[in-house]
Specification:
The complex is a heterodimer of chains A (135) and B (135). Chain A is mainly beta and 135 residues long. Chain A has a single domain, classed as Metal Binding Protein, Guanine Nucleotide Exchange Factor, Chain A (Beta Complex), CATH 2.170.150. Chain A has one helix and eleven strands. The radius of gyration of chain A is 15 Å and the shape is globular. In chain B, strand 6 and strand 7 form a beta hairpin. Chain B has one domain: Metal Binding Protein, Guanine Nucleotide Exchange Factor, Chain A (Beta Complex). The longest helix of chain B has 7 residues. Chain B is mainly beta and 135 residues long. In chain B, strands 6-7-8-9-4-3-10 form a seven-stranded mixed sheet. In chain B, strands 1-2-5 form a three-stranded antiparallel sheet, with no helix packed on it. Classes of the chains: A mainly beta (135), B mainly beta (135). Chains A and B meet through helix 1, strand 6, strand 10 and strand 11 of A and helix 1, strand 6, strand 10 and strand 11 of B. Strand 11 of chain A pairs parallel with strand 10 of chain B.
Chain lengths: 135, 135
């Protein structure tokens, strides 16, 4: 699937061909912290198709539990997370689904690191919880 | 409840008090973009309890559709979203990003969900998505 994406303030924009059948929800504690939310939602890019159209993301090198080094990119102005990349030629990119124009069409195929999942994330149709269409 | 929180790289640390039963999920399109995931998860600090212990967050001044302005704080080094508050010198309360709070697993399920009209449909129930305990 061909997508375009951008950060909230519009400085950073990109396009890519994504592997739409490989959307993943990640419940690891690092993804919770780095998204500020309950879990991260990622999708891998088909090799060699990521094109940065505008802006210059800031990058941060993150060492995983395994010792693997992963490059994390975010907008330096508004903080929107943009991608993670495994260094290589070309690098393997994984995009943050929230930034993609076609995010409403994407369904997760797998959840990982469920051992650290916040329990309420399984089902948000909670009896008694207030749900508003707007604010 | 007293909480501590901060960013992934350790630059920013704070402490605050919250009511653990007041978790909120926001499904608005802006929060999807700014977190990179399906929804934002916030909890409000009780009036006068937020204290920044280290680091200097970068501020992005966000203007909502309504014209309201909010100061969004994130780590300039690793991009972790920290909080949002009224853009004034000493705001009473801060909307803390739950993913960066050390005690987040102790919070109850969200008491309130807002902007449900733009929720990604799958995010309301992921119990049927294939699960792995690790990565």
């Amino acid at each position: 699937m061909k997508i375009v994406g951008q950060c909230y303030c519009g400085q950073v924009s990109f396009e890519a061909e994504i592997q739409a059948d490989k959307v993943r929800v990640c419940h690891c504690v690092d993804c919770q912290t780095l998204s500020g939310s309950a879990f991260r939602t990622n999708v891998p890019v088909a090799q060699g198709t990521f094109v940065l159209k505008s802006g210059e993301p800031k990058t941060f090198v993150k060492a995983g539990d395994s010792g693997n080094r992963l490059l994390h990119a975010f907008c330096p102005d508004c903080g929107t997370p943009i991608y993670s990349a495994v260094p290589g030629d070309p690098p393997s990119y994984s995009l943050r689904v929230g930034t993609l124009d076609r995010r409403a069409e994407l369904l997760p195929a797998r959840q990982i690191w469920c051992r650290s999942a916040l329990p309420w994330t399984s089902d948000l149709n909670l009896p008694g919880a207030e749900r508003l269409e707007r604010q | 409840m007293k909480v501590t929180g901060g960013c992934h790289c350790g630059h920013i640390a704070y402490e605050a008090e919250v009511d653990p039963a007041t978790l909120r999920v926001c499904h608005c399109a802006d929060c999807q973009k700014l977190t990179g995931t399906a929804f934002r998860t916030n909890i409000a600090s009780l009036p006068g309890t937020f204290r920044l212990k280290s680091g200097a967050p970068k501020i992005y001044l966000k203007t909502a559709e309504s014209g309201n302005k909010r100061a969004h704080a994130f780590c300039p080094d690793c991009g972790t979203p920290i909080c949002a508050a009224a853009p004034e010198p000493n705001p009473t309360s801060y909307g803390l990003r739950v993913g960066g709070i050390d005690q987040r697993a102790q919070f109850g399920p969200p008491a309130r969900q807002i902007w449900c009209r733009s929720a990604l449909p799958w995010s309301m129930n992921i119990s049927g998505v294939e699960r792995a305990e690790r990565g």
